[in-house]
Structure formats: structure tokens, C-alpha cells
Design brief:
Distance between the termini: 50 Å
Radius of gyration: 21 Å
Helix content: over 70%
Order of helices and strands: HHHHHHHHHHHHHHH
Oligomer: single chain
Number of strands: 0
Length: 331
């Protein structure tokens, strides 16, 4: 065991740190940031451009975020619960379940977080005037359970499921805001069609970015976990189609991302009539070029450590994509 692995193993003996590792605290922060930034920096600006403000109250929106975080945390917990054997092969030094946190407590935490997440989501949906919106919370909780128990080990299905969940996180602020708008203004969709379409368009771009990059990251993670997945009978893409084919598909996702972002840059240049606008420069330097570099790096990667590094780079690119909301708001 190397010095870094030894330090990590010692840190994970602390139950609080182990808990944060179990619920993927860094991913939960990303989820919260996604919903907050898309609401307060994207939707708010679009609504202001059409002479309107946000109708969904802050306290109600905060409940929606809390519900999302609880269900996501429950999903991470149950995923680790069922993945102990695989993780003991792939990353034995960072396994939490059965070490710092007992399996019984992992299940209790999963059930508690899922229950609270669904109840809070139902309450928020009811207060927003559309109880049916709670289907997002129910659906996410059910999908995360089946992902951990069945879908994760299947070819493509698990990758698509996680990517769709990531995309839905971006859509939730829009869906609840539009629901509240329709409740407050009964003819909102017919009278403010342009505002609805503009909001949908920009949120769809963020959501599509999340889906494609999420798909690429899931494939890269499968290549990173190849050894443990194969030993435990999983049928992930690298195992069924091979590492080389998986690399090509991950690179294809990254190239598609770069291409779609290039269209955004083109439209920005066309609209603002400036090649070096803040929008185009930011997208090019922090998203397009890093995506192209990562595609090349992923194609040349061979070891688990290299695939892990590629996954971390992609997470950074996803964060930069989210931070574009600041550019959108202030320019």
C-alpha cells in the first residue's frame, strides 16, 4: 500500500469522513450547484428578459433541492452496498461499507434518505399545485434502486439510466417553475410562449451537455473498473465490446459534445457579431478544447489510474459547463 492509499485508508476510519465518502459529498455539492445556478442565474435572467420574475418561492425551491440530494445520497449508499465485492477488487483502500459503516446501517440510511426525499418531494409538488410532479422523485428513487441491483451490470442500460438522471437534475428547476407559473397565471403557456420556449431551449442545452458528458464518464468509469466488474460477472461495455471499442464510444461522446458546443459558439458569434465575445471565448477555452484533449487522452489511456484521471478531468469539464451560467447571467 502506497503512502497516499495509507492516508486515505486512515481517514476513512473516521465515521464522519466515511459517511461523506459513502454519500459522495462532492457529487451532492455538484447537484445542488446545478439546481441553484440554473434557477437563479439562467431561469431568472430569461424570465426578467420577458418582464417576469420567478414565482416558485425560495423555501419551496430549497425543499426540492433537499429532496433531490436525499434521493441521490440514498442512491449512492445502495450502490456501494451492492458493490462491495467489486470495490474490494477495484479500490480496496476506499471501501466504506462493511468497514467504517456496517451493512445494516447502510440499509437504514438508504431507506431513511429515500423516504424523506420522497415525502419532501411530494410536499413540494403539492405546494406547487401539481402533485404529479412528485413522479420525478418517485421515479429517481426507483431507478436508482434498480440501477444498483440490476441495471449497472447490464450493457449500456445502466450508463443510459445514470445519464438520464443527471440530465433530469437540470430540468427540475424548469419543470417546477413552469408549474408554478401556470398555477399563478392560468394562460401562462399561451400568453408567454416565447418565454417558455427560451427557458426550455437554454435548460435543454445544459441538460443535453449533462447527458452526453455523463454518458462518456460512465463508460470511462466502466473501463476503470474493468477488473472488478469482470470478476463479479458484470456485462458492462468494456467487458462485452472490449476496451478499444469502449474508448472509441467515449471519445465519440466527447467529440459530439465539442461539435455541439461549436454550434453554440457559431450562433453566439452570429448573434453578437463578435468572434472574441466572453461567451465564445469561455466555451472554447474551458469546454471545447478540454473535451478534445480528453478524447485524445482517453484513447491513449491503458491503465486504471489513467482512466480514473480521465474521469476526474471530465468532472472538471462538467463543472466548467455549469459555471457557464455565470457568463450567461452577467453578459
Amino acid at each position: 500500500m502506497g503512502s497516499v492509499e495509507l492516508v486515505v485508508a486512515q481517514l476513512l476510519n473516521n465515521k464522519i469522513i466515511a459517511f461523506f465518502k459513502l454519500v459522495r459529498i462532492e457529487n451532492l455539492v455538484m447537484i445542488a450547484l446545478t439546481q441553484f445556478l440554473l434557477r437563479y442565474f439562467v431561469l431568472q435572467k430569461v424570465m426578467n428578459q420577458y418582464g417576469m420574475g420567478l414565482e416558485l418561492g425560495n423555501s419551496l425551491f430549497h425543499l426540492i433541492v433537499i429532496s433531490t440530494l436525499l434521493i441521490a445520497a440514498a442512491g449512492y449508499i445502495i450502490n456501494d452496498y451492492f458493490d462491495v465485492k467489486t470495490d474490494m477488487i477495484n479500490r480496496p483502500d476506499t471501501v466504506v461499507v462493511d468497514k467504517a459503516i456496517k451493512r445494516r446501517w447502510a440499509i437504514i440510511l438508504h431507506i431513511t434518505f429515500t423516504f424523506l426525499g420522497i415525502v419532501i418531494g411530494m410536499y413540494a409538488s403539492l405546494k406547487a399545485g401539481y402533485l404529479r410532479l412528485s413522479i420525478f422523485h418517485f421515479g429517481a428513487a426507483i431507478l436508482l434502486w434498480f440501477y444498483s441491483t440490476h441495471l449497472k451490470k447490464q450493457l449500456l442500460v445502466g450508463n443510459i439510466a445514470v445519464s438520464l438522471l443527471m440530465a433530469s437534475v437540470s430540468f427540475m428547476p424548469l419543470v417546477f417553475e413552469m408549474g408554478m407559473m401556470q398555477k399563478t397565471y392560468p394562460h401562462f403557456f399561451s400568453e408567454y410562449t416565447h418565454a417558455v420556449l427560451a427557458s426550455f431551449k437554454i435548460i435543454f442545452i445544459f441538460s443535453l451537455f449533462s447527458f452526453i458528458t455523463g454518458m462518456a464518464r460512465e463508460i470511462i468509469k466502466d473501463m476503470e473498473d474493468y477488473k472488478g466488474d469482470k470478476a463479479t460477472g458484470s456485462l458492462t461495455m468494456p467487458i462485452v465490446w472490449g476496451i478499444r471499442s469502449s474508448k472509441l464510444i467515449a471519445c465519440f461522446c466527447l467529440m459530439v459534445t465539442a461539435m455541439l458546443l461549436s454550434f453554440v459558439v457559431y450562433n453566439t458569434i452570429k448573434t453578437q457579431r463578435s468572434v472574441f465575445s466572453v461567451h465564445s471565448v469561455y466555451i472554447t477555452l474551458t469546454l471545447i478544447l478540454p473535451a478534445l484533449f480528453l478524447a485524445l487522452y482517453t484513447f491513449q489511456a491503458h491503465s486504471s489510474k489513467q482512466f480514473k484521471r480521465a474521469s476526474l478531468i471530465l468532472k472538471f469539464i462538467m463543472l466548467m459547463g455549469l459555471c457557464y451560467s455565470f457568463i450567461f447571467y452577467y453578459n
